[in-house]
Amino acid sequence: MKGKIIVVSAPSGTGKSTVIGHLMQRPELRLEFSISATSRKPRGAEQDGREYYFLTPEEFRRRVDTGEFVEWEEVYAGTCYGTLVSEVERVTGSGHNLIMDVDVKGAMNIKKHFGDQALTIFILPPSMEELENRLRSRNTDTEESIAKRLEKADFEMSFADRFDIRIINDSLDDAVEASAKAIKDFAK
Ligand code: ADP
Ligand code: 5GP
User: Fold this and answer.
1) DSSP state letter for 188
2) Which of the four pLDDT bands, split at 50, 70 and 90, describes residue 59?
């Protein structure tokens, strides 16, 4: 049987990667992470082929031109991210459910492309103040990058209603539990 697609979006700093990390530890969900391509440089301990396929801006553009992406977006000015066709086929073809971390526009495009095969989940921060706290405490972004991410957050929040479900990441355990239940119901 072909696997399903789970799309997770949230303003940067909400805790989406943390939630996804916990979901991935539940074997009953049969999740495999979709590794996106990006034109940004690795951050902290990130490794090529693990968090992202890190491409130069030129290589990213070349792959856009040769039609290798299901979707791609310039998420931040000058920085592109995209989902490779090969990545979707590799995972869903093996019967696993593909979990994706994409921006809000990418999520809408994936839903349009895959319809009922995809479940879109929007994760909300408890408040904008807490979002800023989390971005700072993560200790991975420059002031400039934090400002860019906060500036984008209001725009991203305006998409929340267009997702299949919304989950608030206040208590991490509750957010993981609610997400796991939604995925189990969807992918059974
Ligand atoms: P995102 O992937 O959405 O950009 P991260 O998963 O990197 O966000 O989380 C941002 C920061 O917030 C990290 O330092 C993480 O440990 C912390 N965090 C995640 N979820 C919670 C939560 N429920 N309560 C408090 N801190 C959290
Ligand atoms: P970060 O630089 O914090 O890792 O990610 C920045 C943003 O890029 C996040 O909002 C994330 O959801 C988005 N993103 C990551 N991969 C993709 C992708 O393949 N496609 C799209 N459209 N957005 C992505």
Assistant:
1) -
2) very high
